[in-house]
Every structure is written in structure tokens, then in C-alpha cells.
Predict the structure.
Amino acid sequence: LRGGGGGGGGGGGGPASTKPREQWTSVFVRGLCADDGVPRIEEWLRAALEVTPARVRVGVDRSTGLAKNWAHVHFVKHADAMRAIDELSGMKTPSGTEVKAEISIPRDQMRDRKMGGDARPPAPYGGSAPPQVGEAGDAPGAPPPPPAEPTFGLSGLLAQEANTTAKGVSLKYAEPADKAMPRRNFRLYVFKNNEMLKGNNGVLHLHRQSMYLFGRDTDAADIPTEHASCSKQHAVLQFRVREGSTEVHPYVIDLESTNGTRLNGDRIDSACYVQLKDKDVVSFGKSQREYVLIEEDD
């Protein structure tokens, strides 16, 4: 996973660097066209991404020196890696093959998993697992940082069974400890171009679950968003109970989507819960659909 020249010995090209390598988040990309060759694959991957990766390593057959149909793309920031997954998944290469992308498991964690060790993936949104020592930005030997805000980290390769849909789709999001079922009747009224959608698509009842996932992936989303600017797993409406009280309120959290989530026309920060109030209007990406939250009378 970490690539680069290893072992002792010198080889040509100047002295080896003694500076410790910054720990990256690595994205595994498969479905590439091996016939395109290493330079073309690398060039295409860099051009396809809005965020510049720290490094691109295309798989190479050691016996022939030819490219394989996969690559590792490394990012300094975990959020950039997750954004890259969303951008690359389903994209077509110049040769017409469809690409799939997911977080790579570090080899040491893969080994520990097979041996029954306690290695685990990064905590998903809302998860309670503390950050790992040695993540990007930590000095060697530094104590663990304090618990962070909800963070990103689950992928198809790392997903736990408890955090997958009935169809086996891995979820980016895990509900927080203060999740709660709504105790009042909330509904979302869906509008497009100032007209409410007809039939069941126009009124969404929110009293049956503690959270609702919005996104383009119909196998994962509770409320599908069909617009191309929406991410596969875009945002979540989460019911939470306030600390020290029994009141349950709805919140929205953007799952670091590419085109963002808007509340009353203003884009909200990603990975942060924002409380929703009666008659608030939520929209996703560049879709013209607007979701109006209404608290119904008992």
C-alpha cells in the first residue's frame, strides 16, 4: 500500500530520503483498461479528479512490465479520498471500461483481520471509535487527539455487516449514540419548480425511522435523489434526543458530498449536524427539488 523504494541499498538517483512519509488515505481503483498503459492511465486518473492526489500508483505485472487494470491513488486528506471515490465510481475510462473505487485496507490491518486481531476501519459518521494514533498530521509518538466531530470512513471493502443495507451496500454513515425515534409527526413535502410532486412522491412520512439517507444510490438511500449532481450517499436526516432532556429533534448532516446540501438556500458545512426547524427547506446538489419539513399536529 505504501509503495516507494524499500529496503536497504542505494541504487542510482541520489541519496534516499530520511524524512518520514506522511500517512496517506489510499483509494483502490479497479476496472481500468490495462491496454491503455501506465502513463495514460495515470494521466487520466489525475485529470478525472478535482482534488490533486499526492501520488498515483498503477498496478504493474512484474514479469511483463505491463499495466494491470487497477491502481492505488493516495491522498493526504481523508476527505479528499472520499470525494475521489464519489467522483470515480461509475466513471468511464477513455477505453469505455467502468471504474469502481473504494478505500484500501492497509496491509497490516488486513493481516490483523485475518488473524483475528482488533484492527478496525476508521470510524464512520456518528461512530464512537476514537481516532487512530499516527493519522495524517500526527507527530510520531504523539498522544491520540481528542474525540472529533462525526468523521468519514467506511467503504465497501471495510464495511461491517451491521452497517450495510439489506442489499449488501456499505453505508458511509452510522447513527450516533443519541439517536432516537421521532415522538411527533414530521413530514417532508417535496416541490419542484414551486409545484408539489404528485402522489406519494410529494409527501414523505418521517415517523417510522430514526434516520433517513438521501442519495443517488437506490440500493442504499431511503429517499432517492435522482439528479446527477447528487452523490450516491449524499446526506442524512437524523433524529436525535437533546442531552439532559427527552426532546427529539431532526438534524441534517451532509456526507461530504461533491455538490453540497443547502438549508434555506445556504450551503451547510459537511460532516456537521444542523438542527432543522418547522418549514425549513432542504435541497441537495444542483437538484431543483426542495424538501419542506413540516411538523404535523397530533
